[in-house]
Amino acid sequence: MNLRDLRYLVALADTRHFGRAAERCNVTQPTLSAQLKKLEEFLGVTLVERQPRNVALTDVGGRIVARARHVLQDSDDIVAMARAARDPLAGTLRIAFIPTLGPYLLPLITPVLRKRLPKLQLMLYEYQTGPLLEHLRAGDIDLGVLALGVDTEGLETRALADEAFTVAMPSNHALAKKAVVRTEDLSDETLLLLEDGHCLRDQALDVCRRVPVREAEDFRATSLETLRQMVAAGYGITLLPELATRGPFANARNMVVRPFAKPVPHRTIGSVWRKSSTRGTAIDSICEAIAGVLADRD
């Protein structure tokens, strides 16, 4: 038994397909299948149920995969520890952002990170909050950047900055005449929201919980850009995080954005990583860079 065979098994468990598992592992399908058969022979148990168009793990196979994930994570940590000892700001670091943050934050921080950390190769991903935390705990990513206020038990977190919410509305809306909007002004308005799974949906509802807003029952957006277009088309209003109203996103046709009156509702942007991570120096450097960029955005 070796680490390579365990990687094959985990890849098959993730993809439930021999061809896709082989592609992930950069081997041919016959090679992967043969190695897994040898692993079964060595262990003396059947790990995989092979059926036409269906791949499933046996009960013991599932339990072995769960343990194999820990073994592979530990082996990857050993390699990362050695590399970090040679140069903590070199190598590859995998970072994931939530969809309501990544497209607006990345253009700001990427030039800074390239300048400050030229030897660090960043692999960027985008996940909703729940999957992001799952991938982090599984060792698939090294660092997550998200809105805090979610369950991060067992993980390290760091607050980076507060991001204000704004109100986006059609340009002919009555509230467009106001310089600032109070939460009470949203009473009886139709509020457009993201679909379930986006933390911004829950945050928007929390901001408006004290006023009787009407949630658009027949509409759930998959992205902030969809929300922006629906607002511009006159279907209702929405709440946008401040970063999503800057730069190329500042001037949407037929839509205006107004700030909230004080106290301004906001979300806290933060970072999260495993307590066992060996990339502490690189993570600290990235967090410092992000916090600095967000502090200077005004």
CATH topology of the largest domain: D-Maltodextrin-Binding Protein, domain 2
Described by its quaternary structure, the protein is single chain
Shape: elongated
Stretches where pLDDT falls below 50 for ≥5 residues?
none
For the record, give the distance between the C-alpha atoms at the N and C termini, rounded to a whole number: 56 Å
Could you describe the 3D structure shown?
The chain has helices spanning 3-15, 18-25, 29-43, 59-86, 102-116, 129-138, 199-207, 224-232, 280-295; strands at residues 48-51, 54-57, 91-97, 120-126, 143-147, 155-170, 190-191, 214-215, 238-241, 255-259, 266-274. It is an alpha/beta fold and 298 residues long. It has three domains: 3-84, Winged helix-like DNA-binding domain superfamily/Winged helix DNA-binding domain (Arc Repressor Mutant, subunit A, Orthogonal Bundle); 88-158 and 271-295, D-Maltodextrin-Binding Protein, domain 2 (3-Layer(aba) Sandwich); 162-266, Periplasmic binding protein-like II (D-Maltodextrin-Binding Protein, domain 2). The strands form three sheets. Strands 3, 4, 5, 6, 9, 10 and 11 form a seven-stranded mixed β-sheet that branches. It has a two-stranded antiparallel ribbon with strand order 1-2. Strands 7-8 form a two-stranded parallel sheet. Helix 1 (3-15) packs across helix 2 (18-25) and helix 1 packs across helix 4 (59-86). The model has no long low-confidence stretch (mean pLDDT 90).
Topology record:
Blueprint: H1 3-15, H2 18-25, H3 29-43, E1 48-51, E2 54-57, H4 59-86, E3 91-97, H5 102-116, E4 120-126, H6 129-138, E5 143-147, E6 155-170, E7 190-191, H7 199-207, E8 214-215, H8 224-232, E9 238-241, E10 255-259, E11 266-274, H9 280-295
Helix pairs in contact: 1-2, 1-4, 2-3, 5-9
